[in-house]
Specification:
By secondary structure, this protein is α/β, with parallel strands linked by helices. 42% of the residues lie in helices and 16% in strands.
């Protein structure tokens, strides 16, 4: 895995999968642009990556705010150049409610962050990728977007949209040196655990445990690398052989 000379932008980078991707890419030579709504946690990640300090930029950014996204990307690319790799990871998810109890405002909030956030970031970096005839876009979806989760209909709908968006965009840019893929994690280890290799027991997979942040990051970074140049338009499920309950 070698990202020397590449610049990666990662959203939702302060915890969980996003944090693990930031570590893995920085360790393997990438310049990383890290976005999150939580600046305190983002500063902690920057401190963890202090040995790569000259290759790390952090920004507080609400991905549902198109103006903020565009301003952030412009500032970052002025400093680091064109984004080669985009990891759309920021999302809302932990909300279990019956369909009839989810308000219209809540639906809109999930759509604004989980769907439109992906649209805004992708639209902001894609012109630079097209100019270079090179790019890697990896969207973090969910198994909920594959088969739908009870009492998480709003979340499931947004992740299904991300998967469909991935497949559609991939077809538009396949002949332009750009790949677009998504990954769909199953149950992931608690994001507040600082150990990126930690896992806990889970009855939702036949492996009997959650997936780790680093296991998900490894898949994302593989798709971001040149070794995966012939993979595009795919949604790869990473769920420990999940039980569909």
């Amino acid at each position: 895995m070698n990202f020397n000379g590449k610049t990666a932008l990662i959203t939702g980078a302060s915890v969980g999968i996003g944090r693990a991707v930031a570590h893995l890419m920085a360790h393997n030579g990438a310049k990383v642009i890290l976005l999150d709504i939580n600046m305190d946690k983002l500063n902690s990640v920057k401190e963890e990556l202090k040995e790569y300090a000259e290759n790390v930029l952090i920004y507080q950014c609400d991905v549902s705010d198109e103006i903020s996204v565009n301003e952030t990307v412009k500032d970052a690319t002025d400093k680091f150049g064109t984004v080669d790799i985009l990891v759309n990871n920021a999302a809302l998810w932990r909300d279990f409610n019956d369909f009839m109890d989810v308000t219209t405002d809540e639906w809109k909030k999930y759509i604004d962050i989980n769907v439109m956030g992906v649209v805004y970031l992708t639209r902001s970096v894609l012109p630079g990728m097209l100019d270079k005839n090179y790019g890697r876009i990896i969207n973090v979806a969910s198994v909920a977007g594959v088969y739908g989760n009870k009492r998480m209909v709003h979340y499931s709908a947004t992740k299904g949209a991300v998967i469909s968006m991935t497949k559609g965009l991939a077809k538009e840019v396949a002949d332009k040196g750009i790949t677009v893929n998504s990954i769909s994690p199953g149950t992931v280890s608690p994001s507040q655990d600082p150990d990126m290799n930690a896992h806990v027991p889970s009855n939702l997979s036949y492996m009997g445990r959650t997936g780790t942040d680093m296991e998900n990051a490894n898949l994302i970074c593989y798709l971001a690398g040149d070794e995966a140049a012939y993979i595009s338009g795919e949604n790869i499920v990473i769920d420990g052989c999940r039980k569909i309950l």
